[in-house]
Amino acid sequence: FIGPLAGTRHWDAERRNFRDHAGKLNEVLLEQVSRRRSAGDAAIHGVHGFDLLGPDELDGLADAVHPNDVGFARLAERLTPRVEAALGSTT
């Protein structure tokens, strides 16, 4: 294990930095999706990662960053309807 210890002030600062960085990265990616869709690419879709599993849903995160079994279940539950909508399916 290399990095800050979970639950320490340093870890909390690192988690906030990660949340800020991930949030900004999500916004940049979604802007690119929007540009592609505006250019006529109807096959591209995007979803903000925090809409699938937020950084404050710690019971769904193994280490405050990566999903655990609870987190993966939430991801699947929240992503499935979006994929179905993108594919035009209601199953």
Written description of the protein model:
The chain is an all-alpha fold and 91 residues long. The longest helix has 30 residues, at 9-38. The radius of gyration is 16 Å and the shape is flat. It has helices spanning 9-38, 49-52, 69-87. It has three helices and no strands.
Short note summarizing the structure:
With 91 residues, the chain is mainly alpha-helical. The chain has helices spanning 9-38, 49-52, 69-87. It has one domain (9-87).
Helix residue percentage: 55-70%
Major sheet: size, sense and barrel closure? none
Helical element count?
Answer: 3
Order of helices and strands: HHH
The structural domain count equals: 1
Count of distinct strands: 0
The geometry reads as flat
Structural class: mainly alpha
Which radius of gyration do the C-alpha atoms yield? 16 Å
- The N- to C-terminal Cα distance equals 43 Å
Topology:
Layout lengths: L8 H30 L10 H4 L16 H19 L4
Structure keywords:
single chain; 91 residues; mainly alpha; flat
